[in-house]
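Supplementary Note 2. Why include the ligand at all?

Several targets in our set were suspected to adopt different conformations when bound, so apo predictions alone were not considered sufficient. For every target with a known small-molecule partner we therefore ran a joint prediction. The input for pyridoxal-5'-phosphate is given below.
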Amino acid sequence: MTVEKRPFVTKAQLDEIAKTHPTPFYLYDERGIRENAKKLKQAFSWNMGYKEYFAVKATPNPYILQILKEYGCGTDCSSATELMMSDAVGFSGHDIMFSSNDTPPEEFALADRLGAIINLDDITHIESLEQAIGHIPETISCRFNPGGVFTLSNGIMDNPGDAKYGMTEAQMVEAFTILAAKGAKEFGIHAFLASNTVTNEYYPELARVLFSLAVRLHEKTGVHIKFINLSGGIGIPYRPDQEPNDILVIGEGVRRVYEEILVPAGMGDVALCTELGRFMLGPYGVLVTKAIHEKHTYKEYIGVDACAVNLMRPAMYGAYHHITVMGKEDAPCDHKYDVTGSLCENNDKFAVDRMLPKIDMGDLLVIHDAGAHGFAMGYNYNGKLKSAELLLREDGSVQKIRRAETAKDYFATLDGCGMMQKYLK
Ligand SMILES: *Cc1c(COP(=O)(O)O)cnc(C)c1O
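The joint prediction is reproduced in token form.
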């Protein structure tokens, strides 16, 4: 099935926005974010205590976090700055999940000061945590890795056995036993087995793995398992021929497994949580860029004013991002282009051999599904600067939720350098 990918803005709207906000910029769709958050909540409303902890790393912007907070979301953090941003937005205590790995002691300490739930990636982290904060919290979570290969019936697979995260089952048993002896009272289990799964099966299958594990851990250690964290991994259809996930079907699938495994084991009080990032924001953010050069050599190139520092996924993973040439939505895609940025790196291409309508200089291009792991992965290679982030409000107005980086920002860490003073003023 081909779903037509249409941007959430019209050409007229975008032309108007581009008059006051120079390209490139990120644009987020407040309405889409809200509707999706509402639907997720509905999908898991059958579970008492369900909570989505938005993976801050996907879209670390306080205005976005504030919107999600209205729907009862917490935050999932894995660094000190993500914890700080959550704190600043008003998340505190168990509204923050700290799912990090290879964790520096000062980050454990900050998570503890904020009262966050700490999710331990490894059994040796029990000792690290104790050293960092001087005690073991009453509520604690451990991350599980079943090893091997995780396969779904539609062919989606991932390779937990090759992933650096989580503990073996034997280590989970040992960790829970040690933690209980050190005073922990409420336990959580976490696992992230496959990324960007565009199938309604992933969560129910992951739930089956985690729920069975929870029953065994409860039997072996006697601890009270308070929550099970299905983490991230629900994907989005980057390609127009992919069928989107149906979160209501996913929620219902998880409910069936919950009633099959946890309820008969007397564990019907387990709360579920999720740490979705991509699913929450991916489709509701686009990168808007302008065609500024065309080049005809051995291939046809369109040069745009954004580059891989603004959106790294195509360069990094060869990821597909759909492109709409604004105003030419219904024109035939009869031109084959490489759409490139300006980095001195040949992988700086938003699209390779992509069939698109004829592009004229000055055309605005919308690069779809950039709302998660888009701006967030930005970097400064080649001295390139990060773009602004704009929020398209429900009433059609536009709010700048982050200004574009300037040369002064780029040089700011050289503030002790006399030679740079001219550019630091
Ligand atoms: C990245 C990450 C997520 C979010 O993943 P998505 O693919 O964006 O859903 C959730 N939890 C943890 C621990 C992560 O590292």
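The longest helix spans residues 202-221. The two ends are 55 Å apart (CA to CA). Comparable summaries for the other entries are listed in the accompanying table.
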